[in-house]
Amino acid sequence: MILAMAPGGIAEMCITAKVLQLGVPLVTAAHVLRVVVVITTTGPVFRAARSRPCRSTLSLRSPTAAR
Questions:
Q1: What is the phi/psi pair of residue 37, to 5°?
Q2: Structure letter (DSSP) for residue 22
Q3: Which has more pLDDT, 51 or 19?
Q4: Which candidate, 10, 3, 11, places its Cα nearest to that of 33?
Q5: What is the pLDDT of residue 40?
Q6: Largest alpha-carbon pair distance within the chain?
Q7: How does DSSP classify residue 17?
Q8: What pLDDT digit, counting tens, does each position of 8-50 carry?
Q9: In the prediction, which pLDDT does 63 show?
């Protein structure tokens, strides 16, 4: 299961799983699921982040100018 969650390409992880005599279908399914989740959630998360107003912690005014 560790190899299924490891970062890396699908092909490389499948080859590694085959060499280590692990479950290649499990590793492939986990990596395909990871890619699908990233692709389907990136757009909505980006749109949600863009729609929020920008709140900068840095002010262009000096602290003494506000008094």
A1: -65, -45
A2: -
A3: 19
A4: 10
A5: 95
A6: 71
A7: H
A8: 788 888 888 889 888 888 888 888 898 899 899 999 999 888 8
A9: 58
Q: Which of 20, 27, 21, 24 is nearest to 2 (CA)?
A: 27
Listed by start position, the domains of the chain span 2-50
Is the pTM higher than 0.85?
no
3-class DSSP state of 64: coil
Only one residue has tokens 């390409």, namely: 9
Separation CA 55–CA 52 (nearest Å): 9
Contacts of 5 (CB under 8 A, 6+ apart): 30
DSSP annotation of 58 reads: -
Q: What is the pLDDT of residue 53?
A: 74
Q: What is the CA radius of gyration of the chain?
A: 22
